[in-house]
Design goal:
This protein is mostly beta strands and about 160 residues long. Strands 1, 3, 4, 5, 10 and 11 form a 6-stranded antiparallel sheet that branches. A 6-stranded antiparallel sheet has the order 2-7-8-9-6-12. The longest helix is centred in the first third of the chain and has 11 residues. The protein starts with 12 loop residues before the first strand and ends with a strand. The N terminus and C terminus are likely disordered.
Length: about 160
């Protein structure tokens, strides 16, 4: 069993179009790790893309489980602000705690991405339009995640 190859049919490919869908993505991304440099906001394309090293909670077999590279992309993004991310150090690591949504003028609002140690992103969106897809084969994790409680979104800066 230890030499099994990961089943590509188990790769996640999820869409989120409302707040309930976003909570499913949030659960899949809990404890996902990203480099600050892998957070890309493209104003002209109106997209926010983050490449994560995602812990596969849905496939957490054995003592350590698996990890996989996953891409999260939001469309219809009009503005992105950040707080507490080491933007001057693209190699700095952040760990995702949760995704949330604060409704604005329907169907828009603000998608909140909370990271451990107090870092946050706030993406203003015209509507919830998100995709999460695993983009690599899974590999054995060296340990299961153990995270601290996140901090709430406070004052944020434009990125």
């Amino acid at each position: 069993m230890g030499d099994e190859v990961s089943d590509p049919c188990r790769s996640l490919r999820l869409l989120a179009q409302d707040e309930d869908d976003l909570q499913i993505l949030s659960a899949a991304l809990q404890d996902a790790i990203a480099h600050v440099g892998d957070i890309r906001y493209e104003p002209r394309a109106r997209t926010l893309t983050i490449m994560f090293n995602r812990y596969r909670w849905e496939g957490a077999e054995g003592s350590c489980g698996e990890r996989v590279v996953a891409a999260l992309q939001f469309g219809d993004v009009t503005r992105v602000r950040q707080r507490g991310l080491a933007s001057e150090d693209p190699g700095a690591l952040v760990s995702c705690l949760a995704l949330g949504f604060e409704a604005g003028e329907a169907p828009g609002g603000q998608v909140l991405i909370r990271f451990s140690h107090g870092g946050d992103l706030a993406a203003e969106v015209e509507c919830i339009d998100a995709v999460l897809a695993d983009v690599s084969e899974a590999w054995p994790a060296t340990r299961a995640p153990d995270h601290m409680a996140g901090m709430s979104l406070a004052a944020v800066e434009d990125i």
